[in-house]
Amino acid sequence: MAVLESRVHDATIEIRFVQGPVEYIPPPPLSGAGGEAVFLGRTRAEPHPEHGDLIALDYTAYEAMARRELEALAGRVVAERGARFVRMHHSVGRVGVGEASVLIQVLCPHRAEAFEGCRFLIDRFKEHVPIWKAERWATGRTWSPGRPASAGATPPP
After folding, report:
1. Cα(75)–Cα(12) distance, rounded to whole angstroms?
2. Domains of the chain
3. d(Cα 57, Cα 101) in Å, to the nearest integer?
4. Helix residue ranges, H only, 5-137
5. DSSP state, 92?
6. What is the crossing angle of helices 63-81 and 111-128, to 10°?
7. Nearest-CA neighbor of 70 among 28, 151, 8, 146?
8. Are 84 and 42 within 8 A, CB to CB?
9. Are 105 and 86 in contact (CB under 8 A)?
10. pLDDT for 110-154, tens place per residue?
11. Alpha-carbon span 31 to 129, nearest angstrom
12. Is residue 108 within 8 Å of 114, Cβ to Cβ?
């Protein structure tokens, strides 16, 4: 599990890919950061019309490209919303129902910017970052439909 930690405009950006589920981690104490917004995305139970109940999600990432995309997105939140700290963790491998696969934390001087930054990151994450998920059902496996991140990034077979 490699961690990318960088400083941009006196802010800390932490990006990590975690084998299995992610967990909430309290942020470091920062003076001047009065608002923390957190998104913790969990696998929800749902049925498939042919394959039964969802058992787990299996995530695969093009990590080098994903890191570049995430660092650029975090840099925008720092520059445009004054974030002092941005943490983005995403799972690779299996994540069961009820477990978390993505953690996004944004600390800003004020709550409005923290909320806006967190929302911006999760929305762009889903649109731009090359991470794919296979759905494991009681009697089968399917790939979750999504948008291609770029022409050079396609899901594995």
Report:
1. 10
2. 3-143 (3.90.1170.40)
3. 9
4. 63-81, 111-128
5. E
6. 150
7. 8
8. no
9. yes
10. 999 999 999 999 999 888 899 999 999 999 899 887 554 444 444
11. 31
12. yes
Under 8 Å CB-to-CB from 102, ≥6 apart: which residues?
22, 39, 40, 41, 88, 89, 90, 91, 122, 125
Q: Which pLDDT belongs to residue 7?
A: 56
Task: State mean pLDDT over 47-55.
Answer: 92
Tell me if 99 sits within 8 A of 42, measured CB to CB. Answer: yes
**Contact predicate 35/114, CB 8 Å:** yes
pLDDT digits (tens, 9 = 90+) for 57-91: 999 999 999 999 999 999 999 999 999 999 999 99
Question: Which pTM was predicted?
Answer: 0.85
The answer to whether the beta carbons of residues 103 and 89 sit under 8 Å apart is: yes
Contact 74, 84 (CB under 8 A): no
The DSSP call for residue 60 is: E
136: region left, alpha or beta (phi > 0 left; psi from -120 to 50 alpha): beta
